[in-house]
Amino acid sequence: MNAQEILKILQAVEAGTLAPARAMERLKHLPFEDLGFAKVDHHRTLRQGFAEVILGKGKTAEQVAGIVRAMLAKKESKHNMLVTRADSKIFAAVKRAAGEYAKLAKFHPLSGVITVERSKEIAGKGLILVVSAGTSDIPVAEEALLTARIMGNRAEHLYDVGVAGIHRLLENRGALAEARVIICVAGMEGALPSVVGGLVAVPVIAVPTSVGYGASFGGVAALLGMLNSCASNVCVVNIDNGFGAARVASAINRLA
Question: Which CATH code is given to the segment(s) 127-253?
Answer without folding.
Answer: 3.40.50.1970
